[in-house]
Amino acid sequence: MKKKSRLPVEDYIDGVLKGDRMVLSRAITLVESSLPSDQMLAEKVMEGILPYSGKSIRIGITGVPGVGKSTFIENFGKILVERGHQLAVLAIDPSSQKSGGSILGDKTRMEALSSDKRAYIRPSPAGAALGGVSARTREAMLLCEAAGFDVVLIETVGVGQSETAVKGMVDFFLLLMLAGAGDELQGIKKGIIEMCDALIINKADGSNVEAAKRAKREYANALHLFPAKENGWIPQVKTCSAIEKSGLEEIWTMIDDFRDKMTKNGFLESNRQEQRVNWLQEHIRYLMESSFFHHSQVKKRMEELLPGIKSGKFSAIAKARELFDLFLKNRGND
Amino acid sequence: MKKKSRLPVEDYIDGVLKGDRMVLSRAITLVESSLPSDQMLAEKVMEGILPYSGKSIRIGITGVPGVGKSTFIENFGKILVERGHQLAVLAIDPSSQKSGGSILGDKTRMEALSSDKRAYIRPSPAGAALGGVSARTREAMLLCEAAGFDVVLIETVGVGQSETAVKGMVDFFLLLMLAGAGDELQGIKKGIIEMCDALIINKADGSNVEAAKRAKREYANALHLFPAKENGWIPQVKTCSAIEKSGLEEIWTMIDDFRDKMTKNGFLESNRQEQRVNWLQEHIRYLMESSFFHHSQVKKRMEELLPGIKSGKFSAIAKARELFDLFLKNRGND
Predict the structure, then answer these.
(1) What residue of A is the nearest CA neighbor of B278?
(2) Which of A69, A333, B206, B309 lies at a C-alpha separation of 20 to 30 Å from B128?
(3) What is d(CA B4, CA B318) in angstroms, rounded to the nearest whole number?
(4) What pLDDT, in 10s, does the model give residues A4-39?
(5) What is the rounded distance in angstroms from the CA atom of residue A330 to the CA atom of residue B292?
């Protein structure tokens, strides 16, 4: 593995705190690295910036491919920067999923926003195999906050696992949907609807306006069937047309209102406290996996065992134990 | 933690191979235990029964609560046992999910089947916190096979993560759905539809027959939009009425046909080979997590750190490293 050139810890911290985009990007690349030496460095950078993080409103956005997330973020983001906000957009790529969508494939996405100096757009790398993607996105978010961004949007495609991860790091979770035909394949699972703070019917434009209104009523009724949230917030259902820029101001007003209420009733902070504990646990898992699966003796032995595992000759659980013992015994020698 | 009385390794192995239900149940309880001493014992039992496993057709069944899974398994299972099959039914409980469904809550489920000597029904325990639930289900499946069951049904509710786990241990994956209104909240995500080998529209009875036929056509069309599977199997869409026992024979014929084709083209075995490698990786994760989070020094230190983690005073990733180092340093002393 080729080691990339790195900055001293202080340079990362200073650069990020000054809002230097170049350093911010390099710092995110650093935290995304799976090299052990990078990880140690990243931990120091994170410790340095942590006291300066936490001052943004953290918004998660999900929805299946085709629902119009890019256009939504582009035009919603434009409203935010024009109101004087500093906006960071992070995308979680649900790697290791068969139908991952194309968050990262399309380079022309959010063209206007990405050329706007008041916004910063950062996709996560594809194919990060060993868990950790969500943990890295969390660190990218904290870095963005330390760099002065006061609104962070975290985008994910609506295919399952990544929503739980995003929900675990944001204050407000927004689900984009479409009205009308094909809803059964739109495929948003009940669990995702339950975790959202707002359900937005996008593409409420042209001949689709009536259908969107109808869908809004249906979803509003359906949401009543869910148990009340402990924070006292009743999930809102709204329509918008991201492409025609209608309904977007109202969405921001709603999020602002959410932040006010949740700050007053203490839930914003108590939710973040819980998230920090989850962050600890996730990072422990990440450390365990990355140190294990990158351990040279473990890798070598695993190669030897694989044919017998595949054929069913060896018991996977007995060999898992052998590999784990090997790892523990040689932890210092790698 | 109270240690339950255990049998010697040989007694578990002999009892399971003789098809003794009582011993089978105790063996499954053993593999589900998170006690380190039980885990060691379970590994030996698994190693002993492994050569006798693998002879069943493994079928995964999912669908959201209300779709009629219990009735389906009850009456589909009845057909199988009447054809002379030995049937084991395992349920995965998606613990740690907010909307877990009620797989385990309803004790009157599958009443007829559970009193049938040719069938064996085993739910997974609720609330197993540290991953591993799916790994334990896999071991329960292998134990059932060694006990002579030649059809294993693995049931899960359609709320996300657990489907991926089930897909990773079965030969054939079956998705139950309903026709008609409310499909948007029926909430089956695209990823689950993509991984299924058959999509069954249940409750095709009474005034619902036409809607079910229509839904069948729509889903059949929709499935054409997905890329072809590498095994050459084209996912089937069928209707049935589990309660009226119609369409169930056809489903078994289809699964039988699938097994024939996949045995001939080698995919049944190559798929299982891949699954065994995943099993190894999953079990390593399970070992790491259970040995870490049950480590007494780690637990003690974590308690001390939690207030500072919650308040944001400590960096979660720095403290994760500290805890991980503590674990590695004291691995033999717990």
Answers:
(1) A316
(2) B309
(3) 38
(4) 689 999 999 999 999 999 999 999 999 988 787 898
(5) 17
